[in-house]
Amino acid sequence: MISSANPSLIDDLVSANHILVNEGVLDGFGHISVRHDKHPDLFLIAKSMAPALVTADDIVCCNLEGEVIAPIGTKTYVERFIHSEIYKVRPDVQSVIHSHSPAVIPFGVTGERLRPICHMSGFLGALTPVYEIRNSVGESSDLLIRSQSLGHDLANVLKEHAVALLRGHGNVCVGISIQQAVYRAIYTENNAKLQLQAKPLGEITYLSAAEAQATAEMNDQHLDRPWQMWKRRAQSSKLY
Ligand code: MN
């Protein structure tokens, strides 16, 4: 099932792992997946390991129950259900990123909503939903999305949005391609930093819903430009 995927899709998935670390979205934790280009009920993701160290040989194939089907006996991330449950209910989504990108965390725990502050993050829409895991399992969980049921509840909060926050944990970004999901993950972190910087200065004028939509449509036409730069920058790092 892995060998039937377009080799360039696997190359891009490996590059995305490195880019997301290099740009401060992922660290030793977090993961990105892509839907299989020939089997929409399957997705590709790295086995359970640090994203900076992922190579093409580390990519595994999962079904939408969150089971690894190839290579048999390989383990992937505990939180694979974030990916499987979003792919189930969002046929438009081709790539999913789960990160703990740090500047976003405050917006999941305070009631202060993450909103688009500049034209690069119009994809956030008018506001960003927050998933509260206590609504699913009470107050004694480890906050991880470790079951289909929790993944299902998270997907229900994400709905048609590009990004959802997980209270006290991180966020999930989705896209119609690896490149769009990576762009969104990087600019979600970027928007959070800018919003935190602007807040003490005074009342923030956020993008309107129409401005958010117009800027997102514009930026979607230029996803390859930053992708090539992020890829080169990651390749030039000694880490990968
Ligand atoms: Mn996590």
Uncertain spans, ≥5 residues at pLDDT below 50?
A: none
Look at the helices and sheets and give the structural class: alpha+beta
The H-level CATH homologous superfamily, spelled out, is Class II aldolase/adducin N-terminal domain
Alpha carbon gap, first and last residue: 26 Å
Q: Give the percentage of residues in beta strands.
A: 5-15%
Q: Per CATH, what is the topology?
A: L-fuculose-1-phosphate Aldolase
Q: Assign a percent range to the helix content.
A: 25-40%
The CATH first-level class comes to: Alpha Beta
- Beta strands, count: 8
Compute the number of helices. 8
Strand order of the largest sheet: 4-3-2-1-5-8-7-6
Give a brief description:
This protein has 240 residues and is α+β, with helices and mostly antiparallel strands. It has helices at residues 7-22, 81-89, 106-109, 134-137, 148-158, 178-198, 209-219, 224-235; strands at 31-35, 42-46, 59-63, 68-70, 95-99, 130-131, 163-166, 170-175. The chain has one domain: Class II aldolase/adducin N-terminal domain (L-fuculose-1-phosphate Aldolase, 3-Layer(aba) Sandwich), CATH 3.40.225.10.
Question: How would you characterize this protein structure?
Answer:
- With 240 residues, this protein is of the alpha+beta class.
- The chain has one domain: Class II aldolase/adducin N-terminal domain (L-fuculose-1-phosphate Aldolase).
- Helix content is 37%, strand content 15%.
- The protein has 8 helices and 8 strands.
- The chain has an 8-stranded mixed sheet with strand order 4-3-2-1-5-8-7-6, with helices on both faces.
- Strand 1 and strand 2 form a beta hairpin.
- Helix 1 packs parallel to helix 6 and helix 2 packs across helix 5.
- The longest helix has 21 residues.
- It is globular and about 55 Å long.
- The mean pLDDT is 97.
- The structure holds manganese (II) ion (MN).
- The site of manganese (II) ion has 5 residues, from loops.
